[in-house]
Design goal:
The structure holds 2 protein chains of 2 kinds.
Chain A lengths: L12 E8 L10 H15 L9 E5 L6 H8 L6 E5 L5 H14 L5 E9 L20 E2 L17 H16 L3 H15 L14 H6 L2 E3 L2 E2 L8 E10 H5 L6 E9 L22 H13 L8 E3 L5 H10 L8 H6 L16 H4 L6 H12 L11 E5 L6 E8 L1
Parallel strand pairs in A: 2-3, 2-4, 10-11
Antiparallel strand pairs in A: 1-8, 1-9, 4-8, 6-7, 9-12, 11-12
Chain B lengths: L7 E2 L7 H8 L3 E6 L12 E2 L4 E2 L1 E6 L2 E10 L11 E8 L7 E6 L9 E8 L6 E7 L2
Antiparallel strand pairs in B: 2-5, 3-4, 6-7, 6-9, 7-8, 9-10
Classes of the chains: A alpha/beta, B mainly beta.
Chain lengths: 401, 136
């Protein structure tokens, strides 16, 4: 064998099953119930039964622990479990852990899931610091570093991403309308997807620009849809996936990255990184493309983590689909739309399908490889799926097997 | 008026307490490596650049440049009625550090504009918060 050692996982595992619940603003159910439903759907889709599953990987923010789900599903045992994060940075890393578990012989069929009542329960957009009654007025300490952010009203993820967006405008002249093109592309794809919460709500540029400002320069439609729901996938060896009922989505490569300059904490300390307009996605991309033996020119369709429009714009640059600073004109060019050079977020993404913390992007990536998306890119063979920024990130490349 | 108690920084943390101890004296100080002088912000006890344990609180001039900002229009936290503006400032003499500030309302701001620090009392116990305002 030759070549760098980190290509050792290339195409050796696959996503063989996908599952999702309905996405809503109020599920009326527990996160465990949601996780169970999505997991059962993914297991059945893979042609397996719960008795075949021996690994569970979760997101660090999930209320459902690996053993909770194992119990609910009646798994005979769990011989591998793992956790990735923080938060939306998790999904690519979760798939990576599943691959590692399978290739090292610690498990043979691994569930990766994300379940949350993100709208009816605890909402990210409400801010984490001291919002509720009974919370201490003092914030930070103990390595949280919130003391440098929360006392100034920097209390919600949108505030941080607004600072990133403003900085991108300062450095490169990016416009609000260019961000709007990302919102419109996601919405147009959602309009074709019956599972998307915005299926029946078309969006025009006039409506986008007329929408209320949330935190400048980001408006209502630059923000994703906090959502109740769950998604799950089953990862197995490629060989086992080929024996299953669905066309396997080969996991061409996975990556996690905390670089450059790894930062502490969950979110706000990322404001200390030297550049706010080049993110962990840049370091992740370099590793991912090397591991995949592919580049952005090989990608037929991409699912970009889109907690906000600016998140997509920065990643378009960092993954090399356009030069740094040109994300705005690139987004406005039609390149990210149906028929463009890199159609994005074909289920509607977080902006218009639902905010399942990056896991619905993995599910939709598999659909593209299978040819079953409601916004199918004809002949799609390679799909990039990314997870959240800015403190850390992760991503994967899926390929038709 | 907003009668919700504001958020007060924890000032007793091992790594970050010196920042607020300086602020209580109306001084702006950043954590720096006692050996190589690297600015260690956010504050921490170990310098990964030179491998030294041991830091000092370096008093800086309290002048800086506006790096980015956002005006918050949608109410998120009861302690922060909208509109208000969050500023991100790079101090002139603390390379690598960025500090956050709060301005009421929707001030007219320009990237790179000079900013200066002031110290806002935030409780009855002497806690002060370094704040930034346009230096015009």
């Amino acid at each position: 064998m030759s070549g760098p050692p980190d290509v050792g996982h290339r195409d050796r595992c696959a996503i063989s099953g996908i599952g999702a619940t309905r996405f809503s603003s109020d599920s009326g159910r527990s996160a465990l119930s949601l996780a169970t439903e999505a997991a059962l759907a993914a297991i059945a889709d893979a042609g397996l039964s719960p008795a075949d599953v021996d690994g569970v990987v979760r997101c660090d923010l999930d209320a459902v622990m690996h053993n909770d789900l194992a119990h609910a599903l009646g798994l005979p045992d769990v011989t591998y479990w793992g956790v990735s994060g923080p938060g939306g940075a998790a999904p690519g890393g979760m798939i990576g852990q599943a691959v590692g578990a399978i290739l090292s012989g610690q498990a043979t069929a691994v569930l990766a899931f994300r379940a949350l009542n993100g709208r009816s329960g605890a909402r990210f957009g409400r801010g984490a610091a001291g919002a509720g009654p009974g919370r201490a007025r003092r914030v930070g300490g103990g390595g949280k570093y919130d003391e440098f952010f929360a006392p100034y009203g920097l209390v919600a993820p949108g505030h941080l991403f607004s600072l990133l967006a403003r900085r991108h405008m300062i450095e490169f002249g990016t416009t609000e309308e260019q961000l709007g093109h990302i919102a419109l592309a996601c919405r147009a794809r959602a309009n074709a997807n019956p599972a998307a919460q915005m299926v029946d709500r078309p969006l025009t540029m006039e409506q986008y620009l007329a929408a209320r400002m949330i935190s400048t320069p980001l408006r209502l439609f630059d923000y994703c849809l906090e959502t109740d729901g769950a998604c799950a996938v089953v990862v197995t060896s490629a060989e086992r996936a080929r024996a299953g009922p669905q066309p396997p989505a080969l996991i061409r490569a996975v990556v996690q990255s905390a670089g450059p300059e790894p930062q502490v904490g969950f979110l706000y300390p990322a404001l200390m990184r030297e550049s706010l307009t080049t993110q962990t996605s840049k370091a992740a991309a370099a590793t991912l493309w090397r591991r995949a033996g592919l580049g952005p020119g090989d990608v037929d369709v991409a699912q970009f983590y889109d907690c906000f429009t600016i998140t997509v714009l920065i990643q378009l640059e960092d993954y090399g689909f356009c030069a740094k600073g040109e994300g705005g004109p690139f987004a406005a060019s039609g390149a990210i739309d149906k028929g463009g050079s890199v159609p994005i977020n074909t289920s509607g993404g977080h902006l218009s399908e639902g905010y399942l913390h990056g896991m619905n992007h993995v599910v939709e990536g598999v659909r593209q490889i299978r040819g079953t998306s409601t916004a199918q890119v004809p002949g799609a063979e390679v799909c990039l799926v990314t997870s959240g920024i800015p403190v850390t990130t992760s991503a994967l490349v899926l390929r038709r097997g | 008026m907003n009668d919700v108690p504001r958020l007060v920084p924890e000032t007793g943390d091992h790594d970050t307490g010196g920042f607020f101890a300086a602020a209580a004296r109306e001084e702006l100080a950043v954590c720096a490596c006692a050996a190589c002088g690297a600015v260690l912000h956010l504050p921490r006890a170990y310098c990964a650049r030179c491998g030294h344990w041991g830091t000092v609180w370096r008093t800086v001039a309290g002048r800086g440049r506006l790096y980015s900002w956002t005006t918050v229009e949608h109410q998120v936290h009861r302690a922060f009625p909208v509109p208000y503006t969050i500023v991100l400032v790079e101090p002139d003499d603390a390379p690598g550090a960025r500090l956050v500030g709060y301005l009421p309302g929707r001030p007219e701001l320009v990237a790179g504009m000079p900013m200066r620090v002031w110290f806002e009392p935030v409780d009855d116990g002497g806690t002060r918060l370094p704040q930034w305002t346009p230096d015009v």
